[in-house]
Specification:
CATH topology of the largest domain: Aldehyde Dehydrogenase, Chain A, domain 1
Radius of gyration: 23 Å
Number of domains: 2
Enzyme class: oxidoreductase
Organism: Zobellella denitrificans
Shape: globular
Largest sheet: 7 strands, mixed
Low-confidence stretches: none
Keywords: Oxidoreductase
CATH class of the largest domain: Alpha Beta
EC number: 1.2.1.16
Strand order of the largest sheet: 14-15-16-13-12-18-19
Helix content: 25-40%
CATH superfamily of the largest domain: Aldehyde Dehydrogenase, Chain A, domain 1
Family: Belongs to the aldehyde dehydrogenase family.
Mean pLDDT: 97
CATH architecture of the largest domain: 3-Layer(aba) Sandwich
Number of strands: 22
Length: 487
């Protein structure tokens, strides 16, 4: 299936600045390929610094009008955008599968998940309350109000090309901010389809601006170096996040950074075996292991180890690897050649360091970018595969003796995004949850994210939170008012 089978009103091959669909000033383009088949899907403009500055100009000019709108009016437009996404959910899902690779059941789920943030913030934007404080004297009144922070820049990844965009745009717009978005060059069509629906919903020109570019460093410098951009939201690697963090220092921008992870998935002796296996499968192998919150290390206690591994292997070998558009496919490709080469090299090095292959371990015959779902046993915490984010369908398993050892292994990382554990003990739930150094913890649950909950990490996994009321606050400034002369 080619991209031409998707509604032509959704397939855009241009960036969007100040209400206009635009090509790059240089005429340069980016080729976008289907990772499952290698087919050329199309080309989008390869924009640069000049177009980025034009997008910032547009967002700056639109800011006063958008922020002055009554929150109910902003909510109405966001709700219309949400309705259009739901109306076109099947086309958006197919488009995402074409350019990103994940199976249709996953892309359908992502469209609904991404839309949920728009629906949530359409309502939450009407609840940006101030506060009244007790005044120090009788002739004063002290209070605070919430105001939009200003122009926002968002840089989003390819692994969730719908939800990572809506999770940033929705709270920004609900707060009264305008935004410049740079989606991944690997998956621009999904982003541009959302832009087309936002335009159709009536969101005014300049409120959302979208730059497609392969020149991430140049665009990043333009966004971080412009004092009119008051907040940067980035989802991606820790290495790039640290660079953007440093570049934002001169203009003291507010930052939301969702960076790398090294999530432990801990199975204690008293866990419900079937629930733990199901949770590990969902957490580890969703999107072919290409999620920042997926289980990167699976820790299994001695007493349940043999039973867990037997069931886990049995279920992992049931995955149907193939083109995500084909019926019955349960796992698609990884995103590009660099990704699959990295995964294969990590598996080889783990085995050279003493890990043992339980199943998988090789490229899959379905195509150039497919890897067989893999389990490695005999893994130790000092191995590279237990220290680095894999971003692929490989499950390294570490055996442990007791709670203290599991917690020590889990926390032995500079990352702190997500962690998971399975136990039937309420005492252990509290003890372990409080001891794990992570921003999000799944307890007897392998899929944890939703729009009403705060999403984000600690340590080198990032700053700030997305989702929930806290996600709206990250796009606002608090202004304190002290009123005197009250008789």
């Amino acid at each position: 299936m080619s991209i031409n089978t998707v509604n032509s009103n959704l397939v855009k091959d241009a960036g969007h600045i100040n209400g206009q669909w635009r090509q790059a000033d240089s005429g340069a383009t980016i080729s976008v390929y289907n990772p499952a088949t290698g087919e050329l899907l199309g080309r989008v403009p390869d924009m640069g610094v000049d177009e980025t500055r034009a997008a910032i100009d547009a967002a700056s000019q639109a800011l006063a009008g958008w922020s002055a709108l009554n929150p109910k009016e902003r909510a109405r437009l966001l709700r219309r955008w949400f309705d259009l996404i739901i109306e076109h959910k099947e086309e958006l899902a197919r488009l995402m599968t074409l350019e990103q690779g994940k199976p249709l059941f996953e892309t359908r789920g992502e469209v609904l998940y991404g839309a949920s943030y728009i629906e949530w913030y359409a309502e939450e934007g009407k609840r940006a309350y101030g506060k009244l404080f007790a005044a120090p004297t009788a002739d004063r009144r002290t209070l605070s109000i919430q105001q939009p922070i200003g122009v926002v820049a968002a840089i989003t990844p390819w692994n969730f090309p719908n939800a990572m965009i809506t999770r940033k745009i929705a709270p920004a717009l609900a707060a009264g901010c305008t935004i410049v978005v740079k989606p991944s060059e690997e998956t621009p069509f999904s982003a541009l389809a959302l832009m087309a629906l936002a335009e159709q919903a009536g969101i005014p020109a300049g409120v959302i601006n979208m730059i497609t570019s392969s020149r991430a460093a140049d665009v990043g410098q333009a966004l971080t170096g412009d004092s009119r951009v008051r907040k940067l939201s980035f989802t991606g690697s820790t290495r790039v996040g640290k660079l953007l963090y440093g570049q934002s220092a001169d203009t003291v921008k507010k930052l939301s950074l969702e960076l790398g992870g090294n999530a432990p998935f801990i199975v204690f002796d008293d866990a419900n075996l079937e629930a733990a296996v199901a949770g590990a499968l969902a957490s580890k192998f969703r999107n072919a292991g290409q999620t920042c919150v997926c289980a990167n290390r699976i820790l299994v206690q001695d007493g349940i180890y043999d039973a867990f591994m037997a069931r886990f292997k049995e279920e992992v070998e049931k995955f149907v690897v193939g083109n995500g558009l084909e019926e019955g496919t349960t796992m698609g490709p990884v995103i590009n050649r660099a990704a699959i080469d990295k995964i294969a090299a990590m598996v080889d090095r783990a085995q050279s360091q003493g890990a043992r292959l339980l199943t998988g371990g090789q490229r899959h015959p379905a195509g150039e970018l497919f890897f067989t779902p893999t389990i490695l046993t005999g893994v130790t915490q000092d191995m590279e595969i237990a220290q680095q984010e894999i971003f692929g369908p490989v499950a390294p398993v570490i055996r442990f003796r007791d709670d203290a050892e599991a917690i020590a292994i889990a926390n032995d990382t500079p990352y702190g995004l997500a962690a998971y554990f399975y136990t039937e003990s309420h005492a252990r739930i509290w003890k372990v949850a409080e001891a794990l150094e992570y921003g999000m913890i799944g307890i007897n649950e392998g899929i944890i994210s939703n729009e009403a909950a705060p999403f984000g990490g600690v340590k080198e996994s990032g700053l700030g939170r997305e989702g929930s009321a806290q996600g709206l606050e990250d796009y606002m400034e608090t202004k304190y008012l002290c009123m005197g002369g009250i008789r």
